[in-house]
Amino acid sequence: MRIISTLLPPQAIGLTSGKPTIVMAFDTLVDEKSHVVGITVGRMDGPNLTDVRVSALGQAIIDRCSAHIAQNYPQATVVVAGVASVSNAKQRVRNVLAKAPPQSFVLLVCADNKVYDAAFPALGIDMQSANMNPH
């Protein structure tokens, strides 16, 4: 399975006094399926997006993905998936992305920073998409 993620363009957020900011929100291609993916640290109190507890930065990631979905895939399915352990983080991310319906919003909620660090590489990030230099 091939996964390639491109950072969504920067957008003004309150955490940075309204300055354009890149958050961990991506357009992700999984083989031939497109998804919008966000990844953050938090807690899931249930299966829905409203059941997720995250920091202000995590909420900015959700807001950025939600805005992108509303603009580009208004009929999208929302998939909220917990990533609980370091040992299976990469496989969990790959499984969630493989099973998610095309053009869905996938929010990956990692149990802690160590799990986040283990899960992040599975997104196959194109780091050139983070280049803020216009030249």
Which tags fit this structure?
6-stranded mixed sheet, two-stranded antiparallel ribbon, globular, single chain, 135 residues, alpha/beta
What does this structure look like?
- The protein is globular, with a radius of gyration of 14 Å.
- Helices cover 26% and strands 32% of the residues.
- It has helices at 56-72, 89-99, 113-119, and strands at 3-7, 11-12, 20-21, 25-30, 33-44, 52-54, 78-83, 104-110.
- Strand 2 (11-12) and strand 3 (20-21) form a beta hairpin.
- The model has no long low-confidence stretch (mean pLDDT 91).
- It is α/β, with parallel strands linked by helices.
- It has one domain (3-130).
- It has 3 helices and 8 strands.
- Helix 2 crosses helix 3 (113-119).
- It starts with a strand and ends in a 16-residue tail after the last helix.
Summary, kept brief:
By secondary structure, this protein is of the alpha/beta class. It has helices at 56-72, 89-99, 113-119; strands at 3-7, 11-12, 20-21, 25-30, 33-44, 52-54, 78-83, 104-110.
Alpha plus pi helix count: 3
Low-confidence runs (pLDDT<50, min 5 residues)?
Answer: none
- The best one-word shape is globular
Distance N to C terminus: 33 Å
Strand fraction equals 25-35%
Q: What integer value in Å does the Rg equal? A: 14 Å
Derived structural class? alpha/beta
Give the tally of structural domains. Answer: 1
* Helix coverage percent: 25-40%
- Pattern of helices and strands: EEEEEEHEHEH
Q: Give a quick account of the main beta sheet: strands, pairing sense, barrel closure.
A: 6 strands, mixed
Per DSSP E runs of 2 or more residues, the count of β-strands stands at 8
Overall mean pLDDT: 91
